Amino acid sequence: MANGSPMDRASCVQVLEPFQNKFDQCFRDAWSRWQDWLKKLEGSPADVSSRSRANMLYDFITAEAIKQFIEVEHVRVRKERGFLVIYIRDRVAIRFKKFRGRKLRTSGIPTGQARAFQGQMLEFSGEVEPMTHLVAGYLLDSFELDLAKLSITCTLNGEHLWAPIEITPHAGEGGIAIPMPATPGDGPRPVIRSTRKAPAKETSETK
């Protein structure tokens, strides 16, 4: 954030809880659209690269997000510097991404705004107070045939500040559960620096 520190996990859970079903719907409707689109293509689905799939899924996810959130109270939907941002109660700013691997990191071509978002330093138009930057993302299964995990993360320069918030439907209800970590305390955890020369990089928009 430009000033101050990102919100802790418990505070983010409180802000996000009323909207979790909408995030879930964005991803699942987008995945259904992707599967329907593949069926209409001639040839093998294997002809479509993972990069093309990520681009198409991003477009579908953001289109569904606009439909889900555009008229919701306490929510603003904006395109900032070429990517879609969901603002909730002017306390969190959320982008949509694809995760790579079980550590739920993202990768791609770094840009100035991507680095600023990853570093909790991006200032948005009309922003009065600094907002916590979050990523709502998806992880595919090992065969890349279905959604394996939907989560909301908060990172600082590539390192998770707290345990990801999982987006998981309640059995038999259609609501969304946000599991809390078993360990006590919701504040930011110490950042453990990698021994690699460069941290994992954010994308400018998709992938």
List the helices and strands and how they pair.
Elements lengths: L8 H8 L3 H20 L10 H20 L5 E6 L2 E6 L3 E7 L13 H7 L13 E9 L6 E7 L1 E2 L2 E2 L4 E2 L1 E2 L6 E2 L30
Parallel strand pairs: 3-4
Antiparallel strand pairs: 1-2, 2-3, 4-5, 5-8, 6-7, 9-10
3D structure, described in words:
With 207 residues, the chain is α+β, with helices and mostly antiparallel strands. It contains 4 helices and 10 strands. The strands form 3 sheets. A 6-stranded mixed beta sheet has the order 1-2-3-4-5-8. A two-stranded antiparallel sheet has the order 6-7. Strand 6 and strand 7 form a beta hairpin. Helix 2 crosses helix 3.
| Mean residue pLDDT | 79
Helical segment tally? Answer: 4
Termini separation comes to 23 Å
pLDDT below 50 for ≥5 consecutive residues: which ranges?
170-206
Percentage of residues in strands: 15-25%
Largest sheet: 6 strands, mixed
Task: Please list the strands of the largest sheet in the order they lie side by side.
Answer: 1-2-3-4-5-8
In helices, the fraction of residues equals 25-40%
Order of helices and strands: HHHEEEHEEEEEEE
What is the overall shape? globular
Q: Nearest-angstrom radius of gyration?
A: 17 Å
Tell me the number of strands: 10
> Which structural class fits the helix and strand makeup?
alpha+beta
